[in-house]
Amino acid sequence: MLAAERREHLLDLLARTGKIVAKDVAAELGISEDSVRRDLRELAAEGLCQRVYGGALPASPAVADYDARQEVAPDGKRKVASVAAGLVRPGGSLILDGGTTALAVARALPKDLDCTVITHSPTIAAALLGHPRAELFLLGGRVFKHSAVTCGAAAVEAAQNVSADLCLLGVTGVHPEAGLTTGDAEEAAMKRALSARAADTYVLASSEKIGTASQYRVLPWEKVSGLITDADPRDTVVEQVAALGVEVLAAG
User: Fold this and answer.
1) DSSP state, 16?
2) Which neighbouring-strand residues pair with 248?
3) DSSP strand E in the chain: where?
4) Spatial distance between the Cα atoms of 99 and 173, rounded to a whole number of angstroms
5) Do the bridges between strand 93-96 and strand 173-175 make them parallel or antiparallel, or are there none, so unpaired?
6) Residues whose CB falls within 8 Å of the CB of residue 146, separated by 6 or more in sequence, listed in order
7) What predicted TM-score, i.e. pTM, was given to this entire model?
8) Per-residue tens of pLDDT for the chain, all 252 residues
9) β partners of residue 119
10) What strands lie across the sheet with 226-229, from one edge to the other?
11) CB of 100 within 8 A of CB of 123?
């Protein structure tokens, strides 16, 4: 099989099964695992897959820059945001992550809601300036412009001094085996720090993130209370996540 044919076979396999196991493909095609890994490196370099131990998973489309991500699945994000906003109780406290879905959550919160919102996103804070009864706490640090959030040592330290009832967390990849992932190591660390300071963490994931993975792990499934997604509840990945004991809130 020519290299171009192997490439098409790998992409087809990824689309059909949601993962590639290098040793299985090598046995199927009668080639070495090194050849399969080389093909996967090339596909990953083009953003067509995310390499993981033993093979590859679908790459998340949500690792583009902030402006580009605002054009990705806006309807799905609004649906997820509507359900997520309903979890915030009057008088409650919320840690709200950054990103485009979290921004949709901020916009979905009732204008007269009496609550406390802690965020490391200047865009989230700005979106809530028109909520007169919402107390705002903005965590400072180095601004990661790709996602319009603060991160790094100063931001993580600031996060360790707050607490909340609920954390609404954005990720770029949601996979039953890879867990919850994102594309930047410092941003992943900040997300872990935020989640650790809340009684419950719910993950915001519009359907394009389901079954995909990015380079850096944020949290394993046992660290979250639930997943909010507009993906079909009968989706294989969603069913696998639910089987792990994670509450799945449908935003269809």
Assistant:
1) H
2) 227
3) 20-21, 50-52, 55-57, 93-96, 115-119, 134-138, 142-144, 149-151, 164-170, 173-175, 179-182, 198-204, 216-219, 226-229, 247-250
4) 13
5) unpaired
6) 65, 66, 184
7) 0.85
8) 677 888 888 998 888 888 899 899 889 888 998 889 899 999 988 888 888 888 999 888 776 666 666 656 789 999 999 999 999 999 999 999 999 999 999 999 999 999 999 999 999 999 999 999 999 999 999 999 888 999 999 999 999 999 999 999 999 999 998 999 999 999 999 999 999 999 999 999 999 999 999 999 999 999 999 999 999 999 999 999 999 999 999 997
9) 96, 138
10) 134-138, 115-119, 93-96, 164-170, 198-204, 226-229, 247-250
11) no
Compute the residue count for the chain: 252
Looking up tokens 């867990």 gives 179
Q: Tokens standing for 248?
A: 């799945």
Return the amino acid letter for 107: R
Considering just the CA atoms, what is the radius of gyration of the chain in Å?
Answer: 19
Give the residue among 188, 212, 186 at the shortest CA–CA distance from 14: 212
User: Which residue reads 């990953």 in tokens?
Assistant: 44
Structure tokens at 170: 């954005």
Inter-residue contact 11 to 19 (CB < 8 Å): no
Calpha distance 35→1 (Å, rounded): 11
